[in-house]
Amino acid sequence: MSRDTRDDAAPKWNRERPHTLVVACSDGRLQTGVDDFLQRRFDLVDYDRFYIPGGAGALAASGLEFLRATRLRRECEFLLVAHSVEHLILLFHGPAADGPGEAVCADYSRKMPAASPAEIRAQQDCDAEEVLRRFGRALEQVVTHVFRCEVAGDRSLHFQLLHERLCRA
Asked: What is the pTM for the complete model shown?
C-alpha cells in the first residue's frame, strides 16, 4: 500500500545545478562550521557535496591508499563534468597548532597511526598539492580553492587557505 507523503509546504527541487562542488570530510562535528564558512566566504547555500572520510585528503594516495584515492578522484572528476562544476572547494581538517588532538581527521589517523598532528598537517599540505597535480587538465576551467579547517584550543574553527587556482581563460 502506497501512501502519499507530499507536503505542500515542502521545499521545491531546483532544476538548476549550483555549479559548485565541495569535497569535505564526513566528520559531523564540522558540518555546521563548514556550512557557515561557505556561506560567509562564498555566499554559498546550495552546492554539490562530496563528503567522504578524509575529505580532500581521500583524493591523495598518501599512506597505502592508492587504489581508493584513484577511485575517489574518478568519482570527483565525474561530478566535475556531469554537474558542469565551475568552482571546486577542497577541504582538509585537523587541529591547529594549539588545538585538541582529538580533532585530527580519523582518516589520516588510520593512514598515519604514529604521526603527530604536526606531521599530519604537513602531509595534508603535500596531499593538497598532489590532488591538484593529479586532477591536472580536469581543473583547467574550474576555480579551485583548498582550505584546511583547523580546530583551535578554544574549539573555534579557522579556515586556512592552502591553495587558490583561478581557471584559465
From this structure: 0.90
